[in-house]
């Protein structure tokens, strides 16, 4: 086959979108089309069909989402439009034109009461409006198509955009003392590893034609950490001289409730795709190394 694989990325201005943009030059035989919200607002139903028809992608990676968990509590209608309805519009357009859809969801579909790693079959029960809206998006995709991968991930961070990794680094340098909650546990996930593995999944599925079953998958780094553990590792890896104090989440009341435990089991991903996952600590180390490289 000498036709280039065509990949469209929505949410191209966000954290994950920018990681995919960064990786695109490493795939000279593929053709990438990136769209910011202004260029392709997935909440405008007809635009999904128009853009898919125009660019004829073999796969669409939906990195677009309303991701402000706190704001979503007071703005649940808009969160639901972008996260709950729009993925369904996109899935319908992909289905009509034969494109594979890769959609990203969240650990916040769970309430954390299980206290053991959540599998794809576990009962969902979001505690906040963001989680509700993302769950609605999963259901919208599933109701119109079966040629999709939904990857639920958690605690994304990386070299682009605003995220916990960058905030801890900045505050560690500025203040030398941090108080971080130690009663919420999940797996920090490096967005560049996620981006690399999404592209590997597409390669295996569309180029190698491996019989990887479509559907819902949990994708995170291995191991689990509290925000306190995560902050400590960020400070350590970056050689910042700051102390980190563990505190209860009651010290920092937030509008949105968050699960105390939302570690996702990645067994299905590992078994079906064979794509190895690295540890969350390796993610932090790699992020620091990548930051130094890109300045
Ligand atoms: N960040 C996390 O910790 C985390 C954890 C679990 C799952 N996820 C999921 O991972 C995915 C990627 O997240 P991220 O961290 O890369 O998010 P991000 O940095 O906030 O990027 C999301 C991008 O989507 C854009 N967007 C919002 N509504 C849109 C719409 N209707 N049409 C097109 N674009 C729209 C945003 O533009 P504006 O900024 O202009 O609105 C932003 O550029 C999302 O599905 C998110 O729900 C994230």
Question: How is the secondary structure organized here?
Answer:
Layout: E1 5-10, H1 15-23, E2 30-35, H2 45-55, E3 59-62, H3 69-74, H4 76-97, E4 100-106, H5 129-144, E5 148-153, E6 156-157, H6 164-175, E7 177-181, E8 185-186, E9 189-190, H7 191-207, E10 215-218, E11 225-226, H8 227-237, E12 243-247, H9 267-273, H10 280-294
Parallel strand pairs: 1-2, 1-3, 3-4, 4-5, 5-10, 6-9, 7-12
Antiparallel strand pairs: 8-11
This protein binds NADP nicotinamide-adenine-dinucleotide phosphate.
CATH class: Alpha Beta
Helix proportion: 40-55%
* Fourth-tier CATH superfamily name: NAD(P)-binding Rossmann-like Domain
What is the CATH topology assignment?
Rossmann fold
Secondary-structure element sequence?
EHEHEHHEHEEHEEEHEEHEHH
The averaged pLDDT comes out at: 96
Class by SSE composition: alpha/beta
Structure summary, number of beta strands: 12
Number of helices: 10
**Major beta sheet, strand line-up:** 2-1-3-4-5-10
Give start-end ranges of low-pLDDT stretches.
Answer: none
Q: How many angstroms separate the termini?
A: 38 Å
- As a whole number of angstroms, the C-alpha radius of gyration is 19 Å
Binned strand content: 15-25%
Shape: globular
Bound molecules: NADP nicotinamide-adenine-dinucleotide phosphate
How many strands, which pairing sense, and closed or not: the largest β-sheet? 6 strands, parallel
CATH architecture field:
3-Layer(aba) Sandwich
Count of the separate structural domains: 1
């Amino acid at each position: 086959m000498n036709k280039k694989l065509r990949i469209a990325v929505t949410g191209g201005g966000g954290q994950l979108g920018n990681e995919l943009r960064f990786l695109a030059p490493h795939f000279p035989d593929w053709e990438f089309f990136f769209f910011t919200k202004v260029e392709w607002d997935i909440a405008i139903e007809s635009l999904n069909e128009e853009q898919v028809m125009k660019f004829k992608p073999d796969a669409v990676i939906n990195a677009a989402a309303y991701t402000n968990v706190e704001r979503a509590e007071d703005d649940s209608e808009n969160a639901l439009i972008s996260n709950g309805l729009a993925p369904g519009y996109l899935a319908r357009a992909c289905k009509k034109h034969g494109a594979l859809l890769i959609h990203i969801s969240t650990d916040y579909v769970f309430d954390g009461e299980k206290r053991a790693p959540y599998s794809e079959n576990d009962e969902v029960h979001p505690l906040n409006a963001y989680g509700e809206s993302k769950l609605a998006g999963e259901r919208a995709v599933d109701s119109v198509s079966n040629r999709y991968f939904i990857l639920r991930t958690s605690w994304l961070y990386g070299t682009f955009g605003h995220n916990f990794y960058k905030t801890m680094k900045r505050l560690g340098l500025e203040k030398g003392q941090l108080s971080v909650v130690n009663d919420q546990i999940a797996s920090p996930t490096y967005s560049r590893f996620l981006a690399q593995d999404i592209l590997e999944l597409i390669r295996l599925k569309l180029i190698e034609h491996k019989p990887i079953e479509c559907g819902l998958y949990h994708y995170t780094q291995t191991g689990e950490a509290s925000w306190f553990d995560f902050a400590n590792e960020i400070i350590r890896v970056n050689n910042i001289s700051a102390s980190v104090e563990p505190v209860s989440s009651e010290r920092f009341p937030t509008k949105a409730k968050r699960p105390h435990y939302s570690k996702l089991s990645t067994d299905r991903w590992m078994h079906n795709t064979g794509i190895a996952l690295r540890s969350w600590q390796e993610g932090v180390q790699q992020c620091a190394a990548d930051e130094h490289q890109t300045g």
